[in-house]
Fold each of these.
Amino acid sequence: MAAAVPSCGFRRLSARPWVRRSIRCSSSSSSSPSPSGPSPSEVVESIDPRPPASRSFYPKKGQTLELVCETLAFKGKGLCKVADTGFVVMCDRALPGERFLGRVTRTKGNYAQVQKLKTLSPHWDSVTPPCEHAFDCGGCKTQNLSYEAQVRAKEQQVHELITHVGRFSLKDPEFATVMKPIVPCDIQFHYRNKMEFSFGTQKWLPRDRLQEQDQYANGHSLGLHAPGFFDKVLHIEKCLLQSEAANTVLKVIQDCWRDPQLGLSPYDVHSHAGFLKHLMLRSGRDCKNGQQELMVNFVTSSYRPELLKPLVEKISDIPEVVSIMNNVNTSVGNTSVGEEEYTLYGKSSITEILRGLTFQISANSFFQTNTSQAEVLYKLIEDCTGLRGDGSEIILDLFCGTGTIGLTLARGAKHVYGYEVVAQAISDARRNAEQNGIHNATFIQGDLNKVSDNFGKEFPRPDIVISDPNRPGMHMKLIKFLLKLRAPRMIYVSCNPATCARDLDYLCHGAVEQNLEGSLLTIHFDFLCFLEHLRRHGTCDLIPSSCGRHCDCGLALDSCWSTYPSVDKQYGSKPQPAVAHATTTKAATKDQQPHEGKSVDALKQRLLPSSFASQKRERNTSSSSSLAVQILSWNRSYNYQAH
Ligand SMILES: C[S@@+](CC[C@H](N)C(=O)[O-])C[C@H]1O[C@@H](n2cnc3c(N)ncnc32)[C@H](O)[C@@H]1O
């Protein structure tokens, strides 16, 4: 049974014109010795396909180069090449078409990193960033690049990952027709329904604002992390990614929390002393009147409600605030999920309406962070399921969160089975089913990284599998299960193109080293959506990213590609395997990395110069692909700035 792939129009992803431009290097070609050879973490394969000139050029640390940025690569960094050599240089905040002077700060195997010193001529598609923090905040690094240009760059990256990591050939006409264009988001600001700010002991100010006077001399701050620092917080009074009402709450808190009389101290990530860790603001809608509702969640290191009382009194006066929560997290980790949760005011969850259904959202449950784009996504998923609507089909909703995808499909299905690791999300999912009068959905808590041979025995063979994993993608055990299952239809929704491409490679082509045979002929991937920017900060991405911030700042690619969260750390309690009635669980392993040798970092490296990615890997199958790829750019959100 093969339902029609939704036609979203085919558009070829052409390289940007500047990619073909020549690039000049102001310094004479340095005769530094050629690199001694890339380390395994730097380059995925041992083959070096760089042009010979590049191999003889190697810049020195401290050297100044004149460069032109060609395109945006992983983490939203500008990818530049040194003229006549093809030598690759990465530069943070360099934008396509920009000509600039950069100083080499680091040499790394096949490429170097530079710091931008001076822009000689601006990038193309330049716009004036509307946010005053755009150049300093770790969040919106490319707000000065037009949204259209961001979308193009994003599309190009996804395309490269799918071809280089996923090993789908552009020469395959079938593949070419299934790569669908990005679906941009209509709203480019104020779209996030969840923001997470950090309290900091050290107020971080960009160099040109160091003289600024602070009303409070204690230097404490509340805001988003400075780029690259987990311990420095840029003080923010207003963030354009969240709603006006959420900004009102932020302002009210900012106006008083540093008052010494209140005795509130920010948590110090070095000494581990202090009280206030994070401030999470979530917004939803009252399902009766459609009015906005806000949840304010204070994450603290201990339970001291008397300390929070003055803040609670002030913010509960804001009409939109219907819930004030306190998550108590005593660990030294930087997550927002508390071991204990208290309701300080109002209700313990807020509601949101999606595709005509009402959903309860607790402080720690995953919910798509861009509600309007979630509507678009869910509609697209529904189209892709090709549901007959006669109530005869079984749907397996993997990584179901609060059950949103499965529940929006349940009306046309025989039964929906949802699996999810977070207990609170599962209770939300069950409550959501009940409140929406849906009786043909079963939600089961279980860890899909630990599926055993019994997995699959507690539900009938599904007609449609939807898999929507968090950034690390699917565990090999789950991939093996899916290959054995051979469901007629599978929809892979992803927030990380790198791990998604890797999983698709395994699913479609197999892997000799894993003793896996791909199932191209039996699995029909109709659809792969890319919504990176939708995904921020559910329970799945609360670990500070390697770039040192909470990645809660609307920077899609940057945050999501630099994070490889430890599943177990995030959930507080030890998750059980995704098998009903399982009695034994291995102790949770740290930083579960389901695919040895295919870490996210390694995958990201393949994006470097795309030509680095070797095609020389053994395959188990070579059949033509029936993969249909739908790439959606959910909002700007990613401004690379956002996924
Ligand atoms: C990207 S979210 C998708 C949620 C849901 N499909 C939606 O659209 O709202 C991924 C979900 O996978 C869950 N998750 C992460 N790791 C898991 C695991 N090992 N086993 C089961 N669920 C997991 C997270 O808690 C999160 O709810």
Note: The longest strand covers residues 111-121.
Amino acid sequence: MACLLLRMIAPADIPAGLGSAEAIREGDRFPRKAFRPRNNRNLSRKRRRWSLRSPHADSKYASLRFDPESGMNLPLVSSLLTSTAGEVAVSAEQKVYNVVLKQAALVKQQPRSSTALDVKPDTVIPGSVGLLKEAYDRCGEVCAEYAKTFYLGTLLMTPERRRAIWAIYVWCRRTDELVDGPNASQITPTALDRWESRLDDVFAGRPYDMLDAALSDTVSKYPVDIQPFRDMIEGMRMDLKKSRYKNFDELYLYCYYVAGTVGLMSVPVMGIAPESKATTESVYGSALALGLANQLTNILRDVGEDARRGRIYLPQDELAQAGLSDEDIFGGKVTEKWRSFMKNQIKRARMFFQQAEAGVTELNRASRWPVWASLQLYRQILDEIEANDYNNFTKRAYVSKAKKLLALPVAYGKSLISPSSLSQSNLAKT
Ligand SMILES: CC(C)=CCC/C(C)=C/CC/C(C)=C/CC/C(C)=C/[C@@H]1[C@@H](COP(=O)(O)OP(=O)(O)O)[C@]1(C)CC/C=C(\C)CC/C=C(\C)CCC=C(C)C
């Protein structure tokens, strides 16, 4: 009955079919009341084109740069950019780091706690009792349908955290489906603007449908900043208008938008272990790194597939340095030049995984397993690309079921390592 009464009406500007799953497409309409507004900041973003002047051009694959202030090991990419007019601007890395600091500052306002009771209790609104549970259950169903292994991992988390992660997952999935789903061709920048104003409503406690309602509840209970959500939508805008990336700085920003943001959204819910001595910033730095590593891996796996859609998510300057051009990508021939280029790209992705690893142990115990599992499964894709002799044009690198199954107990074992048992943490201490 509740379902019938609350059947969602898709907003006119977002095509009715947002995704392939019914639940993603049509979260049931939710009564617009009940959620406390918070974090509703309206940050405007200026976009300018900058050309890269990397002071570390020859070492950019090789090392991490330690930032003493945050305890973050930042990959050594450019930090200074100059416009064609010679003005100096901050790099993508610096821009993203500012979001990391902002999210970490929000989290720091709350004491670290190991219990499930560190979240605010449900707001009980007459007439909506039970609807919230239904909304979260729906998010869980979507998550189980799209990401079974990850869903199973979330079952280890406390019920409150698990459902919050589901709500975030569903919002990310819906956002991604806007540009990657079956109705992607109908998506315009205006539709994304509307999706963003709907996001504002979610954070202001005015959810549009049931799936939004779950997220509205989540962001009212956990210190989740709106900026990473906005930034993910920005990534979708970027995907609409851009099919080439001049250099790694541009690609870094894209990867942050579409995947690094996920790390920043998730950690406030997953929580940092109370016994962790790591700085909040460093844990967020690792979360960002895992998102970047996953996305870079995704890109390297899908080179051929993307090329068939006319897209090349590889730094153009590095391609040129390797003696490769767009034509080589479209031609899809595995040559020595390609192998050598790929080796460097894989090296860089592994560097980000390495940086991410340092933070996983610092998370709350119950949150570590799904993160370790996702890290291992994604990282193994890089091994598979190598095993395919770098043919990512016509062969899709995938991790076999057997390897996936094996990764789960290994991940579980790693998740038992607590921050306190590490005598010398890789992360800076507060
Ligand atoms: C435990 C865990 C993994 C939590 C994250 C849950 C969550 C909210 C996931 C949302 C993922 C999503 C739908 C993102 C939309 C954009 C997108 C599609 C990004 C790509 C993911 C792969 O998705 P896809 O299903 O398309 O993959 P296949 O092509 O089918 O292989 C991405 C590549 C990026 C996803 C990014 C993450 C999962 C970031 C994970 C980082 C953390 C959870 C932080 C961990 C904390 C520390 C301290 C390391």
Note: Confidence is low (pLDDT under 50) at residues 1-26, 32-64, 76-82, 114-118.
